[in-house]
């Protein structure tokens, strides 16, 4: 059901600081530590060891004050730290929108990948500063830091889109991004068995 309980916001200017990739005024900031990515990395033992070894922050999501309610159009900036677990590059949890609304991402800093999966096909977009990645309706999406520095991007999405994380646990994301021995980024099939094009 659409949520008409909260009145829409008044028109609002939000200061976007390009250099620091921050929004002001800001809404909620979410910190995702390694422990919150349970069941997502292929190498479960490496994941467990990382949780035991300080449970590092993998990414942060800073939201604008625009609420996640129907008809609103919230924004957020996500910053993913560089790193690997096993040899899998650090990434967001990834989610599907329950009602299959679209979303756009704008890369701000660093070097990322936008992995999308519709349950059958996987797509990979290379994300460098200035790239707008379009996420069509029905495509689950995950962002991955493929660089040596933090990767930041701005997201704009329908307020009622929601985040279905169970979909990703059930269906996977089609591909995995790994870096072996400091080499080039490779995309593997989701079971990690072999190389796979996006
Ligand atoms: C982007 C948007 C947010 C999302 C965040 C982190 O900023 O898509 O809605 O929450 O990335 O991704 P996830 O929710 O999959 O952890
Ligand atoms: Zn989304």
Mean pLDDT: 94
The set of bound ligands, ions and cofactors reads: 6-O-phosphono-alpha-D-mannopyranose, zinc ion
CATH class: Mainly Beta
Order of the strands making up the biggest sheet: 3-4-5-13-8-11
Cα distance, first to last residue?
36 Å
Structure commentary:
The chain is mainly beta and about 200 residues long. It has one domain (about 20-190): Jelly Rolls, CATH 2.60.120. About 10% of the residues lie in helices and about 35% in strands. The protein is built from two helices and 15 strands. Strand 6 and strand 7 (about 90) form a beta hairpin. The longest helix has 9 residues, at about 45-50. The chain is globular and about 50 Å long. It starts with 14 loop residues before the first strand and ends in a 9-residue tail after the last strand. The mean pLDDT is about 95. The site of zinc ion (ZN) has 6 residues, from loops.
Summarize the model shown.
With 198 residues, the chain is mainly beta.
List the keywords.
single chain, Jelly Rolls, six-stranded antiparallel β-sheet, three-stranded antiparallel β-sheet, binds 6-O-phosphono-alpha-D-mannopyranose, binds zinc ion
Topology, element by element:
Layout: E1 15-17, E2 22-24, E3 29-33, H1 44-52, E4 57-63, E5 75-80, E6 84-85, E7 88-89, E8 103-109, E9 112-117, E10 122-127, E11 132-135, E12 140-145, E13 151-156, H2 165-171, E14 175-179, E15 185-189
Zinc ion (ZN) binds next to loops.
